[in-house]
Amino acid sequence: MTQWKSKLDLAEDESMNSEATKAKLKLGLFSYPVLQAADVLLYRATAVPVGEDQKQHLEFARTLAGSFNHSYGEVFPLPDVMILPTSRVLSLRPSQTPSPNTPLRLPKMSKSHPSPLSRILLTDTPTSIRTKILSALTDSNTSTITYEPATRPGVSNLLNIYASITRDPRPIPEIASLEFDSISDSENKMKHLKMKVADMLIKELDGVRERFDDLLETKSGSKVLEEVAEKGKIRAREAAEKTMKKVRRKIGLN
């Protein structure tokens, strides 16, 4: 799968067959697509919202479902991939310190990144959000704001976040030009972009952190979580058992 290279932090032209690459391989890289397919098929999902990096995993689940249906009869729907219109959100920091002669590469925003400044959490305070966005790695060209994902990934990532949060339907290059590149103060265009992104994120997440704390730190909140978890467990178990009964019947294990 092409995602393996990104998980191993390999260059696109790097071989998967080298000894150095093989030394990085872990069981989770192989077992994750299988476990994900089991989660999808067990509940007979018909459509699954995923990012581009998960598309191959869903295709794998479809292959397994089709193979079982062909061998034993129809049980599993072939789940469709739902690619959401929101662009992939990248890390605010690279996984490795970029060298002067190496193009900036940003991985997907993730909790596994070693730097806390690389990601925005739903529980972040407004001060923390602003600090992270203002310190986001962009580039040295602070006098122009353009949407160029290949050559300006840091700036383009901030524009993606801004467009998603504001739900602006215009093409992102147009947003970059009209909202940020057109301001007269050329020395502060990058700062203006970062401040606007931070403001929009803080506004969007207003109340989320407080609700999170209330659910985790109060007795009433804990009770709500326990009730939701219990109801979900019962529904999931009933749905899973229905599927497994069909599977056992089809393969003759009644």
What is the third-level CATH name, the topology of the largest domain?
Tyrosyl-Transfer RNA Synthetase
* CATH class identity of the largest domain: Mainly Alpha
Low-confidence stretches: none
Q: What is the residue-averaged pLDDT?
A: 88
Global outline = globular
Q: Roughly how many Å is the radius of gyration?
A: 23 Å
GO molecular function, one term: ATP binding
Region (Disordered): 92-117
InterPro entries: aa-tRNA-synth_Ic (IPR002305), Rossmann-like_a/b/a_fold (IPR014729), Trp-tRNA-ligase (IPR002306), Trp-tRNA_synthetase (IPR050203)
Keywords: Aminoacyl-tRNA synthetase, ATP-binding, Ligase, Nucleotide-binding, Protein biosynthesis
Structural description of this entry:
The chain is mainly α and 254 residues long. The chain folds into 3 domains: 3-82, Rossmann fold (3-Layer(aba) Sandwich); 116-208, Orthogonal Bundle (Tyrosyl-Transfer RNA Synthetase); 218-251. The chain has helices spanning 3-7, 19-24, 27-42, 55-72, 126-134, 153-166, 172-181, 189-204, 208-217, 219-251; strands spanning 47-50, 80-83. Strand 1 (47-50), helix 4 and strand 2 form a beta-alpha-beta unit. It is globular, with a radius of gyration of 23 Å. The model has no long low-confidence stretch (mean pLDDT 88).
